[in-house]
Design brief:
Oligomer: single chain
Number of helices: 14
Distance between the termini: 59 Å
Number of strands: 29
Amino acid sequence: MTATVRLAGSARLEVSPAANTTVRPLTGTELAAPAVVTLHLRQDPRTDGLAVRLARQHLSTGPRRRHIGAAELTTLHGAAAVDVASVSSWATAAGLRVHRREGTPATVDASGSLATLARAFGVELEGWRVRDPRTGAVASFRDHRDELSIPARLDGLVTAALGLSDRPLASSRLATLPLGVTAAISYTPEELAAIYDFPVLQDGGAGTTITVGIAELGGAVHRADLAVFTAANPRLRVIEEAAQGWGPTSDPGGADVEVALDWQVIAGVFRRCAPQADVNVVIKYAANTDRGFTNLIESFATDGRNYTAVSTSWGAIEDRWTPAAMDVMDRAFQMGAVRGIVHSVAAGDNGSSDLSLDGRQHADFPASAPHAVGCGGTTLIAEGGVRLNEVAWNEIRVGQGATGGGVSAHFPVPRYQSSAGVRPVSANGGAARRGVPDVAANADPLTGYVIHHRGVESVVGGTSAVSPLWTALFALASASTGHRLGDVLPGLYAARLAGFTDITTGDNGGYRAEPGWDAATGLGVPSGRALCDTLRRSLVLPDPAHRLRSRDRGGVEVG
């Protein structure tokens, strides 16, 4: 009999069914259904890891700060051929079909019936039915409570196996107003770009091509809304792509609003700050599962485009994730960073508890990933383009949400926080770990964003709006400095609040806004031009002889 070991981190920390949950064995018909598991493998141990490459990039300046291409990513940071062969041999012997998706550095897909997959990984699959105690909505999915098993000879070689569970993981970080409630103040994305002093590119960005991405787990672009924007700015291209054959899937009353907010915030900022630039907004869709979400984020690093920044407005309490899936997601963010991508992620809209009913504080993931820029929210009062007051967003007492933020239960304090004198301490017991958010901006729906959805003007909010706003700013910073930024967080923290307006008033329930970094509003809200100057000095030190040029399907690179 083949010796097996447990695959560390492959089960959720909290798996006991709650009172609102029923669990049953899967039927024979359900077990006969086909499924695909993505196996994540270690990087070839003979090559330098992603962390080493990121460190080297930070030590380099000017023209030496080179971000690698998609093909190099696979070559330099892929799995060893012998490891792929070992995994493939085991999976085939277990009755599974094996294939590798093009351009994926360290993954193997294994497919078969659910029964065959469950036997191969030594786990029992169950049917779960969960009723949301707040809304009454019911979700049905399959999941497992125990850790997966793999052959002992593959121990350390396989780091995660995602796809046996199809539990819906994430929700959009979108905050809308109830019927009958009107926003006290609202802003267009162009107005917010002016209030936060975003840079306007020289000559409107003429001759520059900027490519940004948006990750979505549902929804679709409404073509009539897009036509209005492109008529006013024919240089804007919005491209929709299905990741692994899933999406876009229209959801007019739900995720479609999220999609509209995401691309319209980015488009509005570029309409003001780079009206002559060629702007490509690539929206990718994937299934709302751990396999779908992680593969979606990885695809931005591997599809061959040179994105400057990517926005993600979806997340969930860390407890919903397995530790292995969280580590795989952060590795996908690292892959993006070595390619030059800044990933901005919404930090949540339900305060420091993140909708948990256990009386504890919880960080939202993937905003808590150490290689993503977590984006928190504020309530902004401005008049005539002048910022008058801004506090941490907290309207929970009137049912309008609050900024997420807190301290991760999984990730240690990253070096960029500790080196800057930031030591995030959990309100649950004093443990020091990764603190989130890193940055903030207006998110309160009562002072929300004006968007168009199906031809109707609406005002919405949430940290869903903050992520694309920062994505647009990072793309502008990249264009104005002549370099893609990649792993930007060490530079932001090293700058000691330069380029930020510190928010020192308000709270998100468990954490107060205070001078310096805090777990409600991070380093603060942007002072756009000053932030670009900070990044220019601390990250790139550009040679004046450098020029922007477009290469590799439209990305901005240094010539």
